[in-house]
Structures are given as C-alpha cells and as structure tokens.
C-alpha cells in the first residue's frame, strides 16, 4: 500500500505530530457506581453530556444487579447515547469494587468517579479536566471542605460524622487533600493501574484507598463544589459500611498486625459472652443444675457467634444453604480447642504475673486469635488476594 508519509521529510512529519499533540484532548471516562438509581440515571447522562461539551468522553455505569433494574434502563439509554456503557455485576456488592471494575474497563486517559444521585456537581467535571491538564496533576479531588465548597443543608449529626471520618482518614494520609472521604474525583488511569493490587476495594472510601495505596508520589489538586441533596431514591450507606471503615483504619494503623476483621470477630465474641452469661443466669433462676445450664449456655453462645460472624464478619464469604451445617460443626470444634488454648495460656500466665485479670486477658486474647485464625482459614477461606505481576 502506498503511504505518502514515507516520502515526507522527517521535520515536517514531526511538526505535524506536534500540531496534533497540541490539539490532543485526553479522553475522559466517567465511572458511575449505581445501586437502585433508576430515577437518576437518564437525567445524569444528559447533565454530563451538557457539562462536558467538546471533551471526548464515555460513561461507564457499574450496576450491582439493582432490584429496580437500573442496568436495564442504562442499556436502553446506551442505544441512544453510544458513549454510555453499563457493566452489570451479579452476586457482588460494593461501591469501591464497582468503581475499580469500571475504571479498569474504561478507555480513558483520565478517569472521573462520581455518584449517580446528583450530589456531586457535574459542572465541575470540566474545570477538573482542565486542571488535570494545566497543572499536570495525577489526581484532582472535588472538595467540600476548601474554597467555595460546602456540604449544603446537612444536619448536625451528619456533619459531625463526616468530620470524624475525615479526621480518622488523616491518620492514614495526612493532609494530602482537604476532602479524603470525597466520592468525586478525577485521576490519570496510570494511578489506578499502579495501585490496583493494593486497594482494599471494601466500603465507600475508594479515594482514601487510592491515595494510601499509590506506589508513586501523587500530584494532587482540588476543585471545590457544594454537595447537593440527593435527587431521587435513597442513600445506601449503612452502619456496617461505617464500622468497616473504622476497622480498616485500625488495620492500616497497626500495619496489618490487627486485621479489621479480627476486631469485629472479637467484638462478636464479647457479645457471645453476654449471651452465655444471660442464658446461664436465666437457667439458674429456674433452678437448673450448673453443669447442664453451663452446657446449654455454651451451645447457645457458639450458635450465636457462628450466626453473627457469618452474617457480619464474613458477610462477603457468607455460608449459605447446606454449607452452614458443616461450618457450624467445625466452628464448635475450633472454639473448643480455642477454649483449651485460652485456659492453658491463662494457667501459664498466672504463674508469671500472679494477676488474675492479666492472666485472664492473655488467655482470652490467645483463644480469640486462635479461633479467628482457624475459622478464617478453615471455614470462611476466601479467594487469595491477587498479586502484583
Ligand atoms: N455498584 C454499586 N454497588 N454502587 C453503589 C453501591 C453498591 O453496593 N452502594 C452505593 N452505590 C452507589 C449509589 O447508587 C450512588 O450512585 C453512589 O454509589 C453513592 O452512594 P450513596 O448511597 O448515595 O452514598 P452517600 O451519599 O451516602 O455517600 C456519598 O458521600 C460520601 C461523603 O459524604 C459517597 O460519595 C461516598 O463515597 C462519600 O464518602
Ligand atoms: Mn448519595
């Protein structure tokens, strides 16, 4: 095939490339995690289209098989707007992991992450994009806590909670951004690719996750905006998401020494102890003999612990159907060995310290650690974390 660039002088060729580069506009992928956002998604596509003007863009909706069938509407809309794509994930839940999946499936040089409910101001996408280029930034954070930013009409409790979470996250990343809990930001795709192996992908704090996991120093810029009220539907943030966040902070602070899951497992264990004592007192008040009463109390506590751990601590690897029975049997076995370890260590410790409470605590900690390790490994083993290649 004839190619006339072959006969062109090199200098004119590079001038042409330079001219092309000058006009080059990085492609922007807007990743939108959705769960029950049917009422927002059509208007959002239009709002983003209007806001972005001549910037080359695509939008990737990552929907977790929403009961309201957001994905269905997204696929329909994509027929009219081919720059829109939808990933429908089945059997998985989570804002962070949806964002990661959308980012990895995107084509953009830049990736923006934004909620579907209009709380993030889509008009800031353009200034963010321009700042990415002008400042050669790696990351531009949409912030509520600097410049003209704000949280709108939040009540005092929500304000305080957000403030508390922001303070906590400072423990991890210092003052790198004024709004580490922001769910609204734009970054270079290389940043996602470089940090993806180290992201926890749990909960809501994906930005914090990326900043604390990126292996390279990040040039971070900010653009302020006012957080709006949700347009349709309701928030999906739950107590559980908040608790998970707290445990993850503990895990990071202890450099992985105290896994967040262990804190939760121990908290469930402490609750189990209350169940144990409660049942013991109840049976005692009915004049049941100590041994059968204690045995019944142990049984109930184990059942309670197993059930709650399955629902809460290992929610992402929950045993369902028949798998529940062998799991429960194994759990009782493990706890019995854990109890023996508890007694053994306490017995040793009492000779060393002669303090009842210290010895008791040492025994309980070792017992809990054993139960946690064995249960995680033998009952709720999960797929291994992917390794960096
Ligand atoms: N795919 C998927 N899976 N999307 C989800 C899930 C999920 O399990 N949970 C929530 N989303 C989507 C929602 O549909 C919405 O588009 C977006 O994630 C944010 O969810 P909201 O439930 O509206 O969160 P919020 O308003 O309480 O929290 C927002 O503000 C926080 C700071 O105040 C989010 O932006 C948080 O990231 C942010 O920390
Ligand atoms: Mn919201």
Automatic annotation (TrEMBL):
GO molecular-function terms, A-Z: dolichyl-phosphate beta-D-mannosyltransferase activity
Domain Glycosyltransferase 2-like: 29-193
Entry's localization field: Membrane
UniProt domain GtrA/DPMS transmembrane: residue ranges: 265-380
One Gene Ontology term from the biological process aspect of the record: polysaccharide biosynthetic process
Membrane topology value: Multi-pass membrane protein
InterPro entries membership: DPM1-like, Glyco_trans_2-like, GtrA_DPMS_TM, Nucleotide-diphossugar_trans
Annotated keywords: Glycosyltransferase, Membrane, Transferase, Transmembrane, Transmembrane helix
GO cellular component, one term: membrane
Signal peptide: none
Transmembrane segments: 262-283, 289-309, 321-344, 356-380
Entry similarity comment: Belongs to the glycosyltransferase 2 family.
Protein name: Glycosyl transferase family 2
Gene source species: Zymomonas mobilis subsp. mobilis (strain ATCC 10988 / DSM 424 / LMG 404 / NCIMB 8938 / NRRL B-806 / ZM1)
